[in-house]
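@channel anyone free to eyeball this complex?
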Amino acid sequence: MIEIAIMGHGVVGSGVAEIITSHKQKLYSAIGEEIHIKKILDLREFPDSPLADRFTKNFDEILNDVEIRVVAEVMGGIHPAFEYVSKLLAAGKSVATSNKELVAAKGAELLRIAKENNVNFLFEASVGGGIPIIRPLNQCLVANNVKEIAGILNGTTNFILTKMIKDGMGFDEALKLAQKLGFAERNPAADIEGHDAVRKICILASLAYGKHIYPDNIHTEGITNITLEDVKFAKKFDCVIKLIGDVKVLDDDRMDIFVAPMLISKNSQLANIDNEFNGIMVRGDCTDDVVFYGKGAGSMPTASAVVADIVDCGKHLKRRKFLFWVDSDNENILPYNESRTAMFLRLKSGDKAVAIERFGDIQVIAEGDECALITPVLTIGEIEQNLEGIDVLSKIRIGDL
Amino acid sequence: MIEIAIMGHGVVGSGVAEIITSHKQKLYSAIGEEIHIKKILDLREFPDSPLADRFTKNFDEILNDVEIRVVAEVMGGIHPAFEYVSKLLAAGKSVATSNKELVAAKGAELLRIAKENNVNFLFEASVGGGIPIIRPLNQCLVANNVKEIAGILNGTTNFILTKMIKDGMGFDEALKLAQKLGFAERNPAADIEGHDAVRKICILASLAYGKHIYPDNIHTEGITNITLEDVKFAKKFDCVIKLIGDVKVLDDDRMDIFVAPMLISKNSQLANIDNEFNGIMVRGDCTDDVVFYGKGAGSMPTASAVVADIVDCGKHLKRRKFLFWVDSDNENILPYNESRTAMFLRLKSGDKAVAIERFGDIQVIAEGDECALITPVLTIGEIEQNLEGIDVLSKIRIGDL
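replying in thread with the prediction:
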């Protein structure tokens, strides 16, 4: 019997408890032992829960219980999750978390503490919810040099963009619908401004390249400026607009990493990932493109990934898995204005001539009162310079995905 | 240092050797030790290979070398691969294979021998080439009851169907093009008649449900009867035709498993998987649909999956991974004529009336000299019975994927 604790009994935590209870036999076959929930940490009361006798408000009851070997951290937020997880790892307990904020902010430190104490810190659920991505990237694709990772990493923004693209719904209306359906929070800033996506691409980049990439100074652009006009022009160019988290390593070893809306070809495997779904493309030097698709959020999908990590912790109680990256000071990050891309522009028609003069072989894809243009591949800095003094209606990267 | 051997120096085997040589540093970081190729078994001579001094024609040199702990079997075919792998496992060596024929025919037996000898028998490369699927199914999705697995598991047939759908190319012409481009073999029977796909769906089913499913008595239908007319009518019904390997477990615990061409909705995630690419959808009760996409064959993608397994064997030299299924006599397989589906039919117009009379609420999607119909959901047996005496031009399952 493997005794575990769950910290947090919200959307994901209650799912973890439910899966462990309802999938007992399946989990037993996978690990050869029963997983038993000994404690659940939550400040609220759940008198009607069938697990009511396991609840505690006192973290120390988990920390000091020598029988508890594995803990699921599904509280969210950095504090006190970080302090709790640090103490648990230091006490020789393995931890499985769905907390992307924690992993993005403190991953290197927690992996170090885990290593020092010969326990595991796993976080499959922190990116892509129920989509397997951390383990495939770390194990199945281990024989590849990862050239690029690009993903639709946030379901809320993808839902909104899909409504704009497929139903011609405006941004505000689509956001309201997302909120109504439970795909967006009441305060949607973290999603629509790209902060959620940047945490996830940083986690993937840290894992793929072995150094912690902190989200703080990474260029992060949301979808709040995307209009129906942009969507319409994109369609004329046989593209859709998606919010993409992207990382690639350049020949000089610098890392080009950012979150931004992008025009991507309708033929891209990411173009057909719609609504609240997520998709992650990994470009390996041996495999070429591999894409993972599924529900990137939600109680049961996310909880099932946490439970898979609990099982893995249970299988590796006395030895560490090779999942590790070292700390860094983001020293190799390419400044965003050096990032190279073709750019989709919407300008007033009066500005077309000067744009053509400055950019050279710019491509005109539509014109009328305003015109839509595609610049040649240049650095963001060069593009900004060419646009000085021009009234830019829209400016969206073009992705080669 | 982990000493390994590679059996076979063909398309995949030479890729394995190349990756281990060229990705030395990456692999070292993943496992903490160097992987060293000590022997390569092949009956041919490779005097110009940089590894020329490692070649042997004598299997016993590998079997009896106590330093060799992990062996890659990339010879293909059942014999002598089966005899060699059995002996290696019995001698305490772990084996990684890309040989789907071997795993589909002898998986249960080899897993048993591996278990008895406390070593690993891994086969990530046997399904989906470079696409991670075995490990995600076995580990990441472990907290799910798998309701269904459906996949485009054969790149050759998917390439041919894509050319028929997108370019209006006839079957014969598309097959010739596939052969010219190296996507089809000179004798394409194993691919176009579905035998390759059935091995792969059997491996996935065995893994997901814990019992060996043997391909021999599984309904296997290829794409040789698919015509441009079928493709055209499918389009009218907003569908594409794909060769699908499918398995689901029914409420009475019987397994509905087969390989057959299917009409699937253009909105399905599998519909946009084109050309030589593979895609596998796993329906978990917690995750809902998760899809894996990538190159299902080819030297480097497949070899990189074998190398990932070699790394995993190297990490688990003294303990077994939980990857296992027991033998079975296919006793729970649903007879194909009890499998339930809606069916796309093309009949001569003169037969429409009698079809409507027999099927009841049949749906007419096109008519002229001939008519295209969709039957209600019935068993294959009931459909066959209703079609008695009718000249059926085409009959293709409709998939709910």
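from a first look: Chain B has a mean pLDDT of 96.
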